[in-house]
């Protein structure tokens, strides 16, 4: 008869097995939600990339890498040039704060809507429609933020996090109003493109 040794204290292997399984499960879930890993590369894309790499000069590559962040940095610096009043003076006296926030909102919304127009071409979301929707979104967000400042007090704690809720609401509402109902009609090919865009 063979004796087995059992202990009330778990061994090192017993402790690490659940951790390893948990780590593997977390890694699998993380990889599943990654947008970049769901695409596929065709031969045509790889050939195009190879041709681009072989024909593009280093000067162009460096120029693109250096000049790409300049517009964003320029906007950030220009927004910081607007002087702010002390928060103790209230939300009415801080009209420059609302101006800065509205300009930021318009630019962010325009960036999002321009990506939507690029990735959902059947939507026919023209430049004029993008500007109208971006401006409307900023007006709705600033109006909601001013209402919160009146009710809660100025400055509103976590205003940018609070603003995510009205931004999501107004973005969809203005897409519907400006872009038309085709983006939301069932059976429309735009719906499939919109789901891929998300």
Question: How are the secondary structure elements laid out?
Answer:
Blueprint: H1 12-33, H2 43-55, H3 58-67, H4 70-80, H5 95-119, H6 127-152, H7 159-179, H8 189-197
Helix pairs in contact: 5-6, 6-7
Describe the fold and architecture.
Keywords: Membrane, Transmembrane, Transmembrane helix. The chain crosses the membrane at residues 61-85, 97-119, 131-152, 158-178. With 198 residues, the protein is mainly α. It has two domains: 46-81; 86-197, no CATH class. Helix content is 69%, strand content 0%. It is built from eight helices and no strands. It has helices spanning 12-33, 43-55, 58-67, 70-80, 95-119, 127-152, 159-179, 189-197. Helix 5 (95-119) packs antiparallel against helix 6 (127-152) and helix 6 (127-152) runs antiparallel to helix 7. It is extended. The model has no long low-confidence stretch (mean pLDDT 83).
How many strand segments? 0
**Which residue ranges are poorly predicted, with pLDDT under 50 across at least 5 consecutive positions?**
none
State the separation between the terminal residues, measured CA to CA. 64 Å
Number of spatially distinct domains? 2
Largest sheet: none
**What is the approximate shape?**
extended
> β content, as a range?
under 5%
Query: What structural class do helix, strand and pairing data support?
Result: mainly alpha
Computed Rg: 26 Å
Element order: H for helix, E for strand: HHHHHHHH
| Mean pLDDT over all positions | 83
Report the total helices: 8
- Give the fraction of residues assigned to helices: 55-70%
